[in-house]
Amino acid sequence: MAKSGQERLAKAAEKRLQYDEKELRHRVRLGTRQKLDELMAWNRITEINEAMQNLILNAHALGPTLSYPAMESPRHKVQISENVARMFRNESLAELRKDPGDENFEPN
Is the pTM here over 0.70, yes or no? Predict the structure, then answer.
């Protein structure tokens, strides 16, 4: 006799608890999705969850040192121009001249 839909759902829920499964969801922008699609095509993977599991397992297999370049987020470098630094310094000094006294403090 075939199982009912409720029986199948109950068995699936029981397995999720048994294996401590967590559903991971996140939104990605077009560029990130395109890169994932490209990775999947290169490796002939059709399921996103399979691709994500493979990426996680393979990055972890690299260990802490080798996985770092693959896992680090691209960050923009902030560079403060000389003009902005000079303006900040001048305004800071002007504030200190207006309200002197708090620039001297005792070390802890």
Answer: no
* Three-class secondary structure of residue 61 per DSSP: helix
- Token pair for 48: 């996103």
Residue 22, classified by CB atoms within 10 Å of its CB into exposed (0-12), middle (13-18) or buried (19+), is: exposed
The structure tokens listed for 61 are 């297999």
* Whether the predicted pLDDT of 102 surpasses 70: no
The pLDDT score that the predictor gives to residue 24 is: 86
What's the CA gap between 92 and 104, in Å, rounded? 14
* Closest among 69, 32, 60 to 40, alpha carbons compared: 32
| CA separation for the pair 57, 75 (Å, rounded) | 24
Q: What is the pLDDT of residues 12-26, one digit of tens each?
A: 999 999 999 988 888
Q: Are 77 and 85 in contact (CB under 8 A)?
A: no
Residue 71 CA to chain centroid, in angstroms? 8
